[in-house]
Amino acid sequence: MAAESFTMTLEGHHTTLSPDQIERELSSMWKPMEEGTESTSVTRVVLGNVIWIGLADQVERVRAIVQKVVPKYPCRLFLLQYERENTSDEVKASVSAQCFVPQKGEPPVCCEVIGMSFGPNAARHLRGCVAPLLLPDIQTVLWENLGGVFIEQFDDLQKFADRTITQVSLTRNPARILRRLGEGATTILDLSWFRLGPIRDQVAAFFDDTGVTFDLNNIAVVKVQILRRDQNRALPEVMAALFAGWMGSLLGWKPVGPTNKGFRFDSPSGPVEVTTERVAPTEGPVLNNMNEIRLTDRKGEVFNLTMQQCGGAMDLWCGERDRHAGERHLVLSELSEADALGAALNMPASFERFRAAALLAVPLLDSFYEAEES
Description:
Elements: E1 6-10, E2 13-17, H1 19-34, E3 43-44, E4 48-55, H2 59-69, E5 75-82, E6 91-100, E7 109-118, H3 126-130, E8 139-145, H4 154-158, E9 163-166, H5 174-183, E10 188-190, H6 191-195, H7 197-208, E11 219-227, H8 235-251, E12 254-258, E13 262-267, E14 270-279, E15 290-297, E16 302-307, E17 313-318, E18 328-331, H9 337-346, H10 351-373
Parallel strand pairs: 1-6, 3-7, 4-5, 4-8, 5-7, 8-9, 9-10, 11-14
Antiparallel strand pairs: 1-2, 6-7, 11-15, 12-13, 13-14, 15-16, 16-17, 17-18
Helix pairs in contact: 2-9, 5-10, 8-10
């Protein structure tokens, strides 16, 4: 496609630029760094294109995450900042380098950041701004933080992406957005799915042990305790619902309807009641959004996954707590936001598995919020 010229401000100068001119601006930024002395020169590395598009109030949080991710996944990063109150037809842009030192004494390794801010009237320029700047023959990941705000041009960007990541926990109605993801034909995964990865893997590994007596196919009750610290973010509820949805999708559960404390599913062995309960965070740093997962089978056998909130230790045990049957002590927690993004960029993931889990998570999320309102 032809590169579009668009009105923008670059480094304080108001002008009309094309993506080719932005490339020249990037080249002029790199040249003095790459031609420095041996002690000051940098290595330029790019493994993929990452396009972040989101609301202006998320930019600083995203920059902090990117600082932790870039050492593991150097990329050409686009920060597309949507300003809802901006009525201008102008796109404001900047270019900068994001660097890290691989080892002490080694020269910095750097990748590049292309920042753009735009309002509703300038959104029509997005495709022409971004598409020509995508580096060819490498992965492109689209990371969306629009908080449920609809931008028609988002679909244009998604056509260039190999993978799209969203965060429904940042929206006002996570159940509605999660349902749309599960029912849609477009491959979009939620970042919380990657945050749950270590916990899903550990539970699966535990039940691979033939010595475990707990009957996974005869679960009667699932109880998940969550820690809610930020009233504006629904991450604990989303993660709890997706964990239950993941289990249900593997075990053949079908949604039935809400109960007075949670939601009931049908399984091949009978009804399963799933409840989510909030608990107060302990003092000090809290690593996990889920505090405990407790499964009870139809024989009364109990399986517990307890995340200790200090130091990241986790107890995983099967049986009554006082006899510690089958207990294992692990150092494990959910992934941080930055580590989850790194996993989303570097690891394969099954959208069909996520879709199945999301569709079972939706009614559980709905019942949770209905119970809270009542």
